[in-house]
């Protein structure tokens, strides 16, 4: 690395940006609610790593977004960990740009894969200006800027909070551009890897939540996963948007991958993501993800077919010419699996589906025939192959009550034997005996499925299952009976076989989710009712725009919750909270008539909603606990001007849905607004409260008001048990809202516009919406029909944006900062992608290598060109 004294204007600008980002990051880290010294050390380490790895880390920032939010533990709201991460990466990266020079030259312009054209830059700048005006209008609507760490949805800091994501993305774009100029393949590898990690981390967090709180196979409980997105504590579709925008990138990886191990890893990621999408129980996800994946697949296929005119990658560079399966055959195969899965699941449950998945794996692995045999000999082999299955079925049926688990053992042994034989003869069978062994093993695995279903279902629907499985076997034998048997699958490439087996697994998963519980059916049955509710809510939201000025420029960023609370239906207003820092002047601490007044010490004002209250409708002030044992009691110090009912609870709860709880309520009289102490004995905590060591469930303590339209001022909340003593941190709010968090489990509409375009319209007006739609249209055009259509990432970026927009038809999405960051990052990437030029200088040979290879070759060429000593700076090597 060559160090230099910054003399150029660009270097000085980078140095100023680094200093500003570093100053802001250090200040935020020092105010971190939990162990600020440790956070400052971590922040410094990330900044140093970014200094030395600035060509990689900025592109990888999105990968951490699904798991970096810790607000339920820290209580931070206006500022969060994403801000610290981006500031650290930017501080280190801009410092490297300012005081160092890379050891390689930028690649030739025709190889560069990331560039924002002048028109796009102008459009992005004007939209950024519109967003800045919207933030200022939001702050003004909130009564001016009053900086604070602990403000909520209705205060001025919420406008800055929702305005930050676009700024954070713009802060990273120069680093993306400089890195791509040096190594254009980084745009391909790092961007794709980052978005695959976005999908993987979001999906794994959702799977972990279901494993802990409901079980992986429970599809009937009214429980929708939220994963690591704490922003869903007031509803929303943060997880849905994350899955929709990132899933096409994983599909693109799967379609382009040619290494067996990584191909299997890509399939695993897709299966994990499929389960996460399924358990969101979101109709928007069920529509958005398939459409986004289809768009990605179609654009990828178009790329392969249009590669010839400019000597792009030929289709054979990705899939062998004989690898494709006829669409009709594929649909018939998947339909047959779906019918079998539906019948099997009704009688044999998940075990029968698992056996069917194993048999499907054996089926797609059947090797091709590599020798010419007489037709009579081939038909003899096919005719005799069901006999071992019949013998197995009869023997297993006779022994099924005598030998425990024999059905599962036989099925596992047959699948293992069949896969070993298929691997042994993977290049093709050349003798009739080999064909007989592999075919009879596969048909015998169908008989083993029947035994599994018979054992688990105790004989229920055994004849129907036998008929379906026999139909599968006979149907396949019929396709092989002719003189020229159908062998499309057995001749297919291993990647096509893997994709087909993955499709079979997805079919089984859909059948299991539909047949394993009624919650999906319930969600589908209420679609019309929910849509009518959305229409009514949209009308109310747009009715809050009163003047021409508000229609043109918007109400202001982050102002929907406050506007709805002030001008929405009276009976729909929700609870809220305010942190009061207190006053040192005792004369100001007296309560005026009808008011709570000021307090000498910090307090929190908590209010309840005006809607009908129930267990899930209360607005809660909560804190995460480590452990609870023995006798539990709570003490609340409060004052109020009207009668109310206070509730304290401790529940096994991830974010929205409580499982087991211990709780106590008490009626509170006003006592003239004087301070009073309320004691609430909560009983004994269950012995296994919080789950086991290997399956721990998060314990959450909460205080709420179970009285419509009431308001109290809390001076202290303490919970203690007989084993650990006091359990809460910051019980007197002296540290602000540190460690405290809020949630509204069931009442969500007053916090969201519930439509992405209408949300932009409400905040930025007609002008802002027009600019926003212009950016989207430009990005989709570039990646589908425009200048970036042949870039390897174009299909996934277009599919991700379309999937995100479909989810956004029924949810605001970008009113959650982390999701807004992902959206603007994907949008900026799509706007900047550029297909490297294929025009060949006179006298040079035509380069017909794939784009990925050209990117890599360009990187290698740049690395072989040492950088000349700097002529515009005084530099030296370190």
Automatic annotation (TrEMBL):
Q: Which UniProt keywords apply?
A: Membrane, Transmembrane, Transmembrane helix
Q: Where is this region: Disordered?
A: 840-878
Looking at the UniProt entry, the stretches that span the membrane are: 35-52, 84-100, 120-139, 159-178, 190-213, 233-254, 261-278, 284-302, 323-344, 350-368, 380-400, 406-423, 435-456, 462-479, 499-520, 756-781, 793-810, 816-833
Keyword DNA damage tagged: no
Taxonomy, superkingdom: Bacteria
What protein name does the entry list?
Answer: O-antigen ligase domain-containing protein
Species for this entry: Roseateles amylovorans
